[in-house]
Design a protein that fits this description.
- The complex is a heterodimer of chains A (about 300) and B (about 325).
- Chain A is mainly alpha-helical and about 300 residues long.
- Chain A has one domain: Orthogonal Bundle (ABC transporter involved in vitamin B12 uptake, BtuC).
- Helix content of chain A is about 75%, strand content about 5%.
- In chain A, strands 1-4 form a two-stranded antiparallel ribbon.
- In chain A, strand 2 and strand 3 form a beta hairpin.
- In chain A, helix 2 packs across helix 9 and helix 3 packs across helix 8.
- Chain B has about 325 residues and is mainly alpha-helical.
- Chain B has one domain.
- A two-stranded antiparallel ribbon of chain B has the order 1-2.
- The radius of gyration of chain B is 21 Å and the shape is globular.
- The N and C termini of chain B lie far apart (about 65 Å).
- Classes of the chains: A mainly alpha (about 300), B mainly alpha (about 325).
Chain lengths: ~300, ~325
């Protein structure tokens, strides 16, 4: 029993690593632009499919991981700069913008469905023989995913903390008007945010399908609930919070799945958010609707 | 009976079911400003509930299909159970998702509920037979007269349209009642409505449960005609067909909503049947969804109030003439 539990927790850490990459991207763009981007899951799917195509033409999976991230970045920039700006110019408000991203999600998902012939594709790359350490069985690729997440965390944290652009980004997230008045090129800051968060989004899509070993048009949409829950539970814009929340959700999700209730694993992750919301509404759902779109 | 007669009768039934959905969502979204992105889950709850009380005792694991409960309830208990299932589920969901919080968070939570519910029902086979779904659902009212729903679509259409008319009249009456006015007050200015003594959370929950009950009823009506229900029938995107119908027709205007229902789920989604098919089977379906997404985006861009917008209340015009020049700036 305890061996089973430990194995589930190890699986949970791997899931948390994937979730953390996505949640960092989500929280980054949400805190800066204030758009609750529901097309995030669809962009993950796009990244995953790009990586799959790379595998189909027999190029190295590492290229797939990199190009999946790039595809996420490009898609996000096109959506953010092209579409969302168009709506922002027509004085679309915070709430309507979320509905716009939902429409985008619908369009992307079903375009992918049309292109992929609505099939599920197997995607097994980089899978090695499992290492056994007591009750824990991990594959090298799972270790790689956790290391990747740690690298992404440190790189993002370092960039936000120590670079000029990171400082500008934090300033814009807190007070866009003042930041602009101080001479910070907020337009460029937003662009950098779209690129970085889009890259993380695509990357998360790729490592997710490496872990599940299959990809279809609902891949990202199925993962989106956990991403949003982790980003919100961690506190919007809080990098370490997002990682901590991912860890909690990843472990709870896998422990529930380990108990033989695979269908309810996502429910358990989401339930944490609901419980915290009921006990401490202010801690999670801070922030008012007065915040402005920054695009 | 010719194929055409069957087809038109079926379309009429779909129109009735979609109109019920649109009316209920318009009450929630158009009048109360509650953005129910998980609407389809409540319709699904009604459909599953009606199915298990019509199908009879489940033969258990290993048989053709397995599900919980299982009974042979006579008319009208089947539809009552469907309605109650929708209402109870929306009460449960509403209790945690309708608290005072940012509207975009609230909408996102309901979308998450929709996505998760689909995963749960697909994975938990003993609940409602998983991804394969339930089939062989009959029509209890028709059985009394020796009719079956698929064999007599026009009788069923008359029944479904009759129910829709009753619900339509009821919802319009509710919307014009003082309760309906307080919904609009809440939608337009939540803080002011709250200051006037309206209990915002309770109002939201009431409208959510009423909408959920209508959703459950529509699900029950639908499943008794088509006879089968599975997770493929209630993907998260289905909710947005109804939303698009409301956006196209007119947010907050019931006549507009009926027009939108005719235009989007009926004419727009049925039209491709008459066009030459392109590509592989299933491509048209995917492209239809893309088109729904595009219609949704265009509505948001150009006509956020729809073809027939909501009529502004007459009292406001009166107040404006009396108070002119108005000393109060709106939204100040």
């Amino acid at each position: 029993m305890s061996g089973q539990l430990i194995a589930s927790i190890a699986d949970g850490v791997v899931l948390a690593a994937i979730l953390a990459v996505a949640a960092m991207g989500f929280t980054l763009q949400f805190s800066l632009t204030n758009v609750l981007n529901l097309s995030f899951g669809s962009v993950m799917t796009v990244g995953a499919f790009v990586a799959y195509l790379i595998a189909v033409v027999h190029l190295t999976p590492w290229l797939g991981i990199a190009l999946g991230g790039v595809a996420g970045a490009v898609t996000t920039v096109v959506l953010g700069r092209g579409v969302l700006r168009l709506y922002a110019r027509r004085r679309t408000q915070l709430f309507e913008m979320m509905m716009v991203t939902l429409g985008l999600s619908l369009i992307i998902d079903y375009t992918v469905q049309a292109i992929s012939h609505n099939n599920i594709y197997g995607y097994s790359v980089l899978q090695g023989s499992a290492l056994e350490m007591g009750p824990i069985r991990v594959t090298p690729v799972q270790v790689g995913i956790v290391i990747l997440a740690l690298v992404v965390l440190l790189a993002t944290w370092g960039a936000l903390k120590f670079t000029r652009m990171g400082k500008a980004l934090r300033a814009t997230a807190v007070e866009p008007g003042l930041a602009r008045a101080c001479g910070i090129p907020t337009g460029r800051v937003v662009l950098v945010t779209w690129v970085a968060s889009g890259f993380l989004c695509g990357l998360a899509g790729v490592v997710f399908v490496i872990s599940t070993q299959s990809v279809d048009y609902t891949t990202g949409e199925g993962f989106l609930p956990l991403v949003i829950a982790a980003a919100i539970l961690g506190g919007v814009g809080n990098l370490w919070g997002a990682v901590g929340a991912s860890l909690v959700m990843g472990i709870v999700t896998e422990v529930v799945a380990g108990l033989g209730q695979g269908g309810y694993s996502t429910v358990a992750g989401f339930a944490i958010l609901v419980v915290v919301l009921l006990l401490r509404p202010g801690a999670v759902f801070g922030g008012s609707e007065d915040r402005q779109l920054v695009l | 009976m010719s194929a055409w007669s069957f087809y038109i009768g079926t379309l009429l039934i779909y129109f009735a079911v979609d109109a019920l959905s649109a009316i209920s969502l318009n009450l929630q979204f158009g009048y109360a400003g509650v953005v129910n992105f998980g609407y389809i889950v409540f319709q699904a709850a009604g459909a599953y509930a009606a199915a298990v009380v019509v199908l009879g005792k489940s033969a258990g694991p290993g048989s053709f299909q397995q599900y919980v409960f299982g009974a042979h309830l006579p008319f009208p208990l089947d539809l009552v159970v469907a309605t109650l299932a929708g209402a109870l589920l929306s009460l449960a969901v509403g209790l945690f998702s309708l608290r005072r919080m940012r509207r975009d968070y609230q909408a996102a939570m309901l979308l998450i509920v929709s996505l998760i519910a689909l995963q749960v029902v697909s994975a938990d086979v003993p609940l409602f037979n998983g991804a394969n779904g339930l089939t062989g659902v009959g029509w209890p009212l028709g059985q009394i007269f020796g009719l079956s729903a698929p064999a007599s679509p026009w009788v069923y259409a008359a029944w479904a349209v009759g129910i829709t008319i009753v619900v339509y009249v009821g919802v319009v009456w509710l919307s014009r009642s003082p309760w309906g006015r307080s919904l609009r007050a809440m939608r337009d200015h939540e803080d002011a409505a709250s200051a006037m003594g309206l209990n915002i959370t309770a109002l939201r929950l009431q409208v959510f449960v009423i909408g959920g009950a209508i959703a459950g009823l529509s699900g029950g009506l639908l499943v008794e005609y088509i006879g089968a229900w599975s997770p493929g029938a209630w993907g998260y995107a289905e909710t947005f067909v109804v939303f698009t119908a409301i956006f196209v027709g007119g947010v907050g205007n019931y006549k507009g909503v009926l027009l939108g229902t005719l235009l989007v789920p009926i004419i727009f989604l049925e039209l491709p049947r008459f066009l030459p098919s392109i590509g592989y089977p299933g491509l048209t379906d995917s492209l239809q969804w893309v088109a729904i997404g595009l219609a949704w985006m265009l509505c948001l861009l150009f006509r956020p109030r729809g073809i027939i917008p909501e009529r502004r209340a007459r009292a406001r015009r009166l107040a404006a003439t009396v108070l002119e020049p108005s000393p109060i700036k709106e939204g100040a």
